[in-house]
Design a protein that fits this description.
Blueprint: E1 7-12, E2 15-16, E3 21-27, E4 36-41, E5 44-45, E6 51-54, E7 57-61, E8 68-75, E9 79-80, E10 82-83, E11 86-89, H1 118-121, H2 140-146, H3 162-170, H4 175-202, H5 204-228, H6 232-273, H7 275-278, H8 280-290, H9 293-307, H10 313-338, H11 344-358, H12 362-380, H13 412-440, H14 451-475, H15 499-514, H16 520-550, E12 562-563, E13 575-576, H17 579-597, H18 615-640, H19 643-646, H20 653-658, E14 666-667, E15 670-671, H21 677-701, H22 710-744, H23 746-750, H24 765-768, H25 773-792, H26 797-817, H27 824-840, H28 847-853
Protein name: Exocyst complex component 2
GO biological process, one term: system development
Function: Component of the exocyst complex involved in the docking of exocytic vesicles with fusion sites on the plasma membrane.
Length: 861
Amino acid sequence: MPAEAPTVTGISPKEGPPGTRVTIRGQHFGNSPRDLMGLTICGCNCLLSAEWVSPNKIIARSGPANCKGDIIVMTRQGGIGASTVQFRGYMETVGPLKESAVWVEEEISNWGRRAMSTTAMQQQDPLGLSVEDSSKSLPDDQMNQYFPHPSSESLSSEDFVPARFLLKNHHGTSFDDLKAGLSHLQRKVGAHKEGQLSFLKANVGAVMDQLDTLCVLRDKFEQDALQVRMMPTVRLEQSIEDSRREADRLFKEVLNRRENADATRNALSAMQRNKFLFLLPTSIEKNSIKGDYDLIVNDYTRAKSLFSDSDIEIFKRVFEEVDKRIDSLISRLKTQLTTMPCTLEDQKKLARNLASLDGDNNHAWNAIEARYNYLLESLTAPPEKPPENSNNALSPSSKLGGGQNWQGELPIKIQTVEDCLEVFSFQFPELWKLGQSYFSGELQVEASSGHNKSFRDIILRSIKMLCEIVKENLTMPVGTLTPKHKNSNKNSTDFGPWLPQCLTEVVFLYKSLCGLDLPSDALALINNLIQDLRFHCLLVIMKQTSEQVRMLYKQETWVHDLPSATLPGKQSGGLVTALPSLFESKVTDAVTLLKESIFVHIPGETTVNPILANPSVHSQYGSLAQSIFQGFVQTLEHLSSSKEVMSATPMFLSQILTSSLPPTRQSGNRKLPSENPQLIILSNCLYTRDIVLPSVMKSLASLTGDQETPPLLLARETAVNLLSDLDKQLCEKYLESKTDPLVGTIEPSMYIGEFDWAKLPERSVIERGDLRPYIKEILANLISVNCEVQNVLPSQCRRLLSYIVEMIAEEVSRLMTCIPNFNDEGVLQAHIDLAFLRKTLSPFCTPTAKYDFSPSHPDSV
């Protein structure tokens, strides 16, 4: 609720000459002396002599006013008040015994020794008319223009001019009244003449006696002159002169002492009355040391108004000394005003004091320029090296952890950005507030019209400087130089862990600047910086994630204690390692970090994700997502082609039974699983395509709000194609590693022991039901492969075994067609072997395999 305006309801006394002690009563005069901002009596500023007593009482001395006017009080909360009463000030003639509030120069005074009565000072109007109110009379300046020669309206003056008298006292009187006044004056003069004549007639006897006495005295004087032969007055004059010389001789020393005493007493009295002036130089020095410049300004203003125009020599000398002290103080205040660092309140106080002391309006603008230059110097100064284990530096985001030295020393470029943002967030608001105080008149100076544009340029240049520094240190290409130091061989992508925090600091700065009521173009510069940093942060984080995903093969432990989920219609259900989960967590962490940094809402934004609302950025976001998927595919390819995986020799059941190696293999520094690592990689690939990829796409789409955007659809399609192609490659590589050794053992097993199909002896019925060893070895090897696939990836068992069975059928068919002759027992044995294979392997037989196993095959037996 705003404070009420002060109101003056009573004064005591109601009139008086300059310097009258006036007691002012009213309401809402403030709660302390600091609340009293102004006081005028009859238009004269009386703040220097004002004494705040209470919220309802103020004591002050009236100024040099010769009129009747209001008493106006101004307070800090209530502003300019009103008055229901008026004070009348008048100018008073000061006599030798009259007390005065100002110095009266005695040398030019023409006071007589005879006291004048009050009636003698008052003149009645000679026309017998009432004198008009002084407020209606013409001003003296205008009267002097009408009468340029020496003239006066006073009846007792030698320069009395009747026309001036009439203009001064009766310029508003009607002509008829003036005619009546002239008749009155004529009657008065006639009565005065008649009064003299009647006086002589009434006292003619006494007058004659006086004349006779004067004649007798003249005769006696002439007789004495004849007898003495000299004039009596000469002797009298000589006697008086002798008496004076004797008196001077007797009382000269006494009179000298008296004169000295009077002079000393007058001097002490003058010093006592004006000790404020004589003590002012010392007071200035003491208050200057204490920093109480407001008191110095008040004392100097008071002394200047009282003694600056004085012609008294002692006052001139003292005031010259005061001026010297003030000039020295002004010089010191100018230095303090432009010396940084300096608080905003101290600068404002110094600017106000300088404006009051010398009246120069440029001090406030010099303070603004000094603070602006200090801001630029602070922004371009080299950053200080942070102390070890400092907790004040920006901390890298743990969600992008695992970098080179992200947990070590803070990069110098990040330290530079942090220092600049901290300096700008502290100093720029003070620069803006100082400028607003200058233009609003708070610094008690009148702002120059040309400074509005200059200050606007200062604000824009300051913000542009900050934006350039942030961009140069966060997005600078390798090999260039910043204004402060050389690039330390770091690409901007190496700053990935610190970029989100830097962006957060810039957003916080923008929010704080929005509360300063800055121009829209100034805020637009910071907004553009935020958008650029958002885009840069998006690129860096996505590229960093892509690089980390590409290096995930280093974190493969081959521990498959994470069974995959089974979704309807999906090729899953096998064993997987932690690699797909690591891939998903990397993408999820990156998306979360992007949400917490670049998608933080700032004032004035109307869209949720303004950065991705840009089609080109959205398209690039989809391309970055594709690079992440490509990175994971490259990780799987790297694992599948690594030496440790390739060195894992395929083992069949017959080899395992006769091998002395344990089921777990050792390669390098990592322990390979007992299962075939190629199958595990294949299982990871299928699990990623069917289970992880939809979850990752959902996470990526959470930034755009829609999974069906063309860039994300293209990214998902690319990921599916890449994983499907990798699936084919892994299957071919695995089948190649299994089929070639298995097929290669069939022919040696068929002719083991120099077996000949044309010389097979006749056997009993029971012996004829037995199978050849090569059939048993084929089945044993297929069982080994089946067990291996079932243990790792059961969903792919039919797919993989069907291809192997087809290769076996082709090889068996080829071998059968290469046999030159069969006897009856050989034909029967071949039919038994093929029928058994066809029957046993029917779940995995393709049409081609069934054809090759068929006895009706034209090339078979």
